[in-house]
Predict the 3D structure of the following.
Amino acid sequence: MHEWSAVDVLVVAPHPDDAELGMGGTIAALVAQGYRVGVLDLTNGEPTPRGDPHTRAQETQQATQVLGLHWRGNLGLVNRSLVADLESRRLVAGALRRLTPRWVFAPYWIDAHPDHTAAWQLVEEARFWAKLSKSDLPGQPHYPQRIFYYFSLHLRRVPEPQFVMDITPWWPQKLQALRCYHSQFVAPYPDGEFLQKVETQARYWGQLIGTQYGEPFAVREVLGLRSWEGLL
């Protein structure tokens, strides 16, 4: 685990590469806009057919540098066995209290991968725990203002987002970050099929909002607007 450092935005990912896959363009955009952005990986993502812990750690570090993240850490929970139990909730809540993010991003709540559904539940419940006083959790009480949900789905369904982020200027950066995960997205697909599919999806969401590339997001709480200037 890296030294704790306050961030504005925290992306919680079940495995290294989920953050980049689901919202790498948005991460790059947030960094470019001056926000301090961190990623909390819950597991090391291993075992996989072509990976190993050392390789995945190197790939994650490379992607972290490409996106310009201000902080990245790993809770060391068990891949393929991620559960929303009390001890895991305690760890995530402690991270929220020490990182003090204003906004948190988590995986979408419907998926075929049990680690992904466990992750969103952990984030929801840890957000509540993180604000508690008179507790033995590390750090000071903190309650992130919003949770947003990104799509990194193993379920064959069309996402139903509440909004789509224009990532056109940052698409090359997202693609470069994804290529860092050579053992996951490049080596298994010598014809480049996987990354081509990711681009097709990004183009689909982009054309829905009149841009070249987009990333979809969902929310579970009502959002408020102060002006209409940010709408496309």
In short: The longest helix spans residues 114-130. The mean pLDDT is 96. Strands lie at 9-13, 37-43, 71-77, 103-107, 146-150, 163-166, 214-218. Helices lie at 18-32, 53-67, 86-99, 114-130, 171-180, 182-186, 193-208.
